[in-house]
Design a protein that fits this description.
By secondary structure, the chain is an alpha+beta fold. The protein has two domains: about 130 residues, CBS-domain (Roll), CATH 3.10.580; about 100 residues, Jelly Rolls (Sandwich), CATH 2.60.120.10. The protein is about 15% helix and about 35% strand. It is built from four helices and 17 strands. It has a six-stranded antiparallel β-sheet with strand order 7-8-9-16-11-14, with no helix packed on it. Strand 4, helix 3 and strand 5 form a beta-alpha-beta unit. It starts with 5 loop residues before the first strand and ends in an 11-residue tail after the last strand.
Length: about 250
Amino acid sequence: MLRKLKCNPSDLIKDVLVQLEQDEKKFVICVDGSNNIVGVVTNKDIRRAFLKSVDVTDTIDQIYNTNFEYLSVDSSFSEVCELFRLSDRNFLPIIDKNKKLVNVLTKAQFHIVFLENIAFDLTFDFAQLDSVISEHEIYNRPWGFYKSTFLTVHAQAKIITVSPYSELSLQKHFKREEHWVIVKGSGVVVLNEDSINVRPGRYIHIPRECKHQIINNTNESLIFSEVQLGDYFGEDDIVRYADKYDRKLKGEK
């Protein structure tokens, strides 16, 4: 995978453009014949070069950026955190003690390492993390919407917004427990036969197989944080007993 991210100083700009378009990372690292880094190239560098009337048939050594940050294989976790704090820094080359390119770490991969609790090792094959989702979409529901903030084999976390006078179905799960913290607004949580008034700061634990529901009975949105712990987090682990929006209930086909 590292081979796809490298180019040579004598490569033509037009060829590097094709390389940038074929790889989702949108950067390449220019190395000499000894595999030493001499510069990096991003889409931004190419656009900037075109503004200066550089031609696509020119070689990449005329435009690559020689002012770049990098890591060594023994760089600390703190160093990586500090270097990725800048919003425009999306990747860092990694070199060995002989100054040769041995790896590359992107900001998205670094976030996944943290969320997945992967041992910090800058020789790790980070490319295998590219299929893991680090940014989750917002999902619309009849009662409002939610966004997953992370998902691993052990846990899932969501931020959930319930619209005014809306409610989630009365449901239970077999393969996960849930932990709710009310962030904004107020409403009612149903736990089996109990009804609990909730407001910001209230924590609710929902064990596996406990029937539960949250109801927003106000004219303002109700927002809560949900952490799921278990061994499966699919939507098909929802058993509904009552639903305001006529979705499938227990026993229905």
